[in-house]
Amino acid sequence: MTEKINISKFQLYVIMFHYMLGPASVLCIGGEANQDAWIAIIIASIIGIINFSLIYGTIYKYNNELSFVKVLEKYFGVIIGKIISSIYVIYFLLTSVLIIRHIYEMVTMYLLVGTPIIVIIFLNLLMIIYAVNKGIETIARAGEIYFFATIGAYISFILFLTLSDVIDINNLFPVLENGLKPVIKASLPLFIIYPFGELVSFLYIFQYLNKTKGTIKTGTFAIFSATIIITIITILNIVTIGVYLIHNSAYPTMKMIRLINVENIIQRLDSLAVLIFLTSSFFKLIIFIFVICNSIRDITGVKKYQYFIIPAAIIIGIISILLITSYTKLIYVTKFVEPYVSLPFELIIPLIVVIIIVLRKFLHKFKET
Amino acid sequence: MKIKYFCIFLLPFLLTGCWSANELNELTLITSMAIDKEEDGYLVTLAITVPSEATINAPGRSASTVVSSTRGINACDAFRRTSSKISRTPNLSHIQNIIISEELAKEGILPAIDCIIRDDQLRPTSFLFIAKGVKAKDVLAINTSIEHSASSKISQMIKNAEVNYSIVNAVSLVEFINSLTTPDKEAYLPGIGVYGDLEKGNTVDNSQDVAPSAIIYLAPYALFKKDKMIAWLDDYTSKGVNFLLNDVKSTMINYQCDNDRYFVLNVRKAKTKIKVNTKGKVPKFTISADIKGTICQADCRLDLTKTSKVKELENKFQRVIKQQLQKTMANLQTNYTSDVLGLGGYIHRKDHKLWKNLNKDWEEVFKNLQYEIEVKVTIVQPGAIINPITNDDK
Amino acid sequence: MSFFNLWKKTNKKSDILQEYYGEAKKLKKSLSENIKIIKDLLGNPNDLIIREIVISEKGDKKLAVIVIDGLTNALFVHDFILKELMLAIRTTDLDDEIIKNTKFVNIIKNHSLPISDIDNLDDFKKLCEKLLSGDTIILFDGYNQGLVLDTKGWKDRGVSEPSAETVVRGARDSFNETIRTSTMLIRRRIKDINLRIENKIIGEVTKTNVSVVYIDGLANEKIINDLKKRLEAISIDGILESGYLEELLINKAYSLFPSMYTTERPDKVCANLLEGRIAILTDGTPFVLVIPAVFIQFFQSTEDYFQRSIFSSFIRLLRFLSFFLALLTPAVYIAITTFHQEMLPTNLIISISGQRESVPFPALIEVLFMELTFEILREAGLRMPRAIGQAISIVGALALGEAAVNAGIVSTIMIIIVSITAITSLIFPEYNFSNPIRLLRFMFIILSAAFGLYGIALGLMFLTMHLCSLKSFGIPYMYPLAPFNFKAMKDTFIRTPINTQFRRPSIFVEDDLVKQNKNNEVIKQTSKKGSELESEN
């Protein structure tokens, strides 16, 4: 395509929104903080916003047109930069594996009980290959269409829940029963993984924006809105199914949706709801694979990123089938392994880049004077 | 172009698909489930709908629901063994009621409940009942008129009772699990029983008779302590519990004004608030009930056109209700020592530090809880006529 | 293409063609020679009329009036050409001097032919083209020049009511097969000097007139240039309908969705021109192409603007609902009855399963059977001779109705579902648009039979991605949904009153954005005052 790829600010907002909701909205994250899970999410999002606007914001401010691969090459030198970028690619691959595995678990649990994993993952990857192949513009546009559908769905779920007479506000109290400590403990892994830290992949996407101004503001606003949605969902989870079932359910939000029963007519929406949650996860996965292919293109210098889609998809598919063998393992990896693995990628390396930027600027000024 | 080849790849998957597909005429819809405990295991009974008999155009010759009971060493085992008795795959997603036998409830309900809640087809909004006086499986076997099956009768009946009588309220699976797992309240379940001849009750004739030989009825609450059922309440206490739980939608209150003569209040709106004062050494509860209603029967002479007389009557009702609530509380405290009202939760939410101290010997504290009951009754309407009908002028 | 080759082959043998036609050979001086060549070129068909008139007193000089019978307005040729020529010859003294004068042709052209469109010609190629498109040719003895007179006039259908797009309120005229009538109908509605009608002849054999119509200053230059370039690049033997152009002009010929809007209503074309779109008129068909087309456009009818806005909005929302119903109803039926039985209320599922008891087939077969039967009936209903329509509809009603249910082939609910899809797919103002829905419905049916709602969700995702990747002449197909444009929402799902719509859609229009002056506020205020006065009276 000879035309320059352009995505608008609203489109960026929309894909960031989907990206953050991803599987996070179904997992009812922050459950470790019991009835204070929603506070944990808000704390996590504040840290997430700071992380995003300060660290990623600074990187973006000084490197408007560059993808993160080029940024790394710029500051670490070509070879080291490429090596780090390659590790990033592996990291993104692994994260994608987790997402696709969550999609599989949700589908087999709520939609197609007993369908072989390979079929579901294959179908899913097929759709994602098609989407990534069409490019970021198409993805962003589809994101816009699904944005309104998603918002509409969330609003109707909230409405139906309130109409179903299952809400018990008492579940929310007492607030901060055991003090702030467990809350912060729950929010610490959160801000790194779901959903706010993973925004590092957008450093690869910002280059396609049609305007450089206001990007970080848009991103912050996206984090803010995603936080609102996730907080509402978490609160609803607490007041409907209660803390015990949140701890004890594979996907608490789905359990919550099952409670919907409006006059015995609108009921058992879980099969529909899982689709809404899946769409957001699809978008997250699409973005990840897009970023993976783009980074490989930038690292290798090949012209079209499209060459790498199918290999990447196949690798993700194979790993997700072979590496993670059960739901228990998946939850273990998501909750206890991923946060520590992602720390360097989402915080430390960007932080080093920022430090280098600041130092260079300082040196530059120093030289001038 | 690449995409097209992928579509071709897709084809074999489509053709070999349908792993989890079940045609409607290959499965049976199960509308209710009953679990009994027997000496050597569990007895699971499924109420299976016969679709061709349950539709409007059905000839009505045979029963629209058949019951199938199977024994097993545990609930899940028993459930799976049913498949050796029925021709189609059972579909649990439409189970509306789960009936648990009294013996099982008394021994501990957990082993039966885990199997149910773990199953992903089952809806967490299905209602739980304890069979009173009969085996759980017998309840499902009663043939009913109006509704096409016992299970749909039960689920309609509990709704009707909730709205019009309020002695018991439906308890859904998720509510029950929450009360079971939360440390600051105890669980309760409505009871269900059968009047009449069980043998005749399960024939098709039962639904065709003008006066059925057997009929299902709702019984008052069964109280739990942890996962074990401890006692049945009577109607009077059960209604009191419902008042205290703020679950009364509409019911009636009797005030005996004379020998065999009553004033009956039709409660239209009832709101109970429980507040706790944790400032003192022992938490003190204030229970305030605000009840609005109309008169549905008046047998004694009273000039209801005068506000003072109406006030008088209101006060009388207040006393009756207060007495009922007090008796209920006393019963709960001394006879059953079961905190079904979740009073512990009130303390927990108000002052979690205090709750931590009380939590250890909550039973003892609960026995000696102090409370105050305030009842306010407002008669908003006397009904279609104002004064009681009398024949004094004759 | 094979047709084209055949045509070339058979004519290669003809030497005359190569001699006179191939390289724009000039006319000869001798009239008889010219006539002979023309006769040879055209194969001396019986509708070729050559009327020779003697012009010199001696009778040796002649002129010839050449027409193709049927393509010309015969009365016109008699009254204004033959009669005038003969009168002129009789009344004026045509001596040899004048005839020999080279200006003779011009004298005839300028003084004695009361015809508006008249032109000179001097080669055989142009002569044949003009002759075959219905013009009259006059050739003179002794001159290697001729005259072309526009006397086109053939039996055409006349302006009739549109057959494919009917409205209750609105104009009743439609385009017909003659391009001149079509341009007339547009001109009659838009009397602006900026209305451009640019002609192009496409098709090496058919030589079809294709007009590009737009309003200069409103339409996007880039799109116009792009369109012209694409039209220029077309090389085909014939254009028989605008559908040929539609497929030739777009990049993605494999997409199911129409990337051009087809209409036979002049008012629709004019409305689109005013929005900055471009119309392509093709001779020989009443269907006009409008570009660029967007997805939303297919949900809008001209009548939306003639009715009260609230009602129009309701109708539009109904169309969107119908779109999903038409697309998904059978698929969702399969998904729910075979995968997600828990979604339906208990009583309904019992009732459905009671109906399904007697049906031996899986839901997929049942649905496919009914849908295919319906599609076949629909196609048969379109193609069959009118006279047997009654029979087909009776058979159709029987096949789709009671009989199938009683025979235990399908369940009653299936009939309802097929009826819903049938009715809802007919609601769209543009007939073409129901075609992708009809096909995609089958895709969704198969997907849902294999994967339930998951299949449907994946299918919808595929569909959305596909729709979002489409572009019609550089305009994203899903505009104004994606890229989202809030201002355009006034006229998308709903239609706000016309006095709230001040701007043209910015994505098509280049600079003249304001379509309505805000001065209308004045009208509002005065009308308010007026109503006060009325109430006082």
In short:
The complex is a heterotrimer of chains A (369), B (394) and C (537). Chain B has helices at residues 2-15, 51-54, 75-81, 102-107, 110-118, 136-140, 150-164, 173-181, 198-201, 205-208, 235-244, 307-336, 343-350, 352-359, 362-367; strands at residues 27-38, 41-49, 65-72, 89-91, 97-100, 127-131, 188-196, 214-225, 228-232, 251-258, 261-277, 284-298, 370-381. Chain B has 394 residues and is of the alpha/beta class.
Describe, in plain words, how this protein is organized in 3D:
The complex is a heterotrimer of chains A (369), B (394) and C (537). With 369 residues, chain A is mostly helical. Chain A has one domain: Amino acid/polyamine transporter I (Up-down Bundle). Chain A is 73% helix and 1% strand. Chain A is built from 13 helices and two strands. In chain A, strands 1-2 form a two-stranded antiparallel ribbon. In chain A, helix 7 runs antiparallel to helix 11 and helix 9 (215-247) packs across helix 10 (252-258). Chain A is globular and about 70 Å long. Chain B has two domains: 23-232, no CATH class; 236-394, Nutrient germinant receptor protein C, domain 3 (GMP Synthetase, Chain A, domain 3). In chain B, strand 1 (27-38) and strand 2 (41-49) form a beta hairpin. Chain B is globular and about 80 Å long. The mean pLDDT of chain B is 82. Chain C has helices at residues 2-12, 15-22, 31-42, 74-91, 96-100, 104-112, 124-132, 179-189, 221-233, 242-249, 266-274, 309-338, 346-356, 363-383, 389-400, 402-406, 412-424, 434-469, 520-536; strands at residues 48-54, 62-68, 118-121, 136-140, 146-149, 195-202, 208-215, 261-263, 278-282, 288-291, 471-472, 475-476. Chain C folds into three domains: 12-149, no CATH class; 179-293, no CATH class; 317-457, no CATH class. In chain C, the strands form three sheets. Chain C has a five-stranded antiparallel sheet, with helices on both faces. In chain C, strands 6-7-9-10-8 form a five-stranded antiparallel sheet, sandwiched between helices. Chain C has 537 residues and is an alpha+beta fold. Chain C is elongated. Chains in contact: A-B, A-C, B-C. Chain A binds chain C through residues 8, 10-11, 107, 111-112, 115, 120, 123-124, 127, 130-131, 134-135, 138-146, 148, 264-265, 267-272, 275, 278-279, 282, and chain C through 339-340, 342-343, 345-346, 451-458, 461-462, 464-465, 468-469, 476, 478, 481-484.
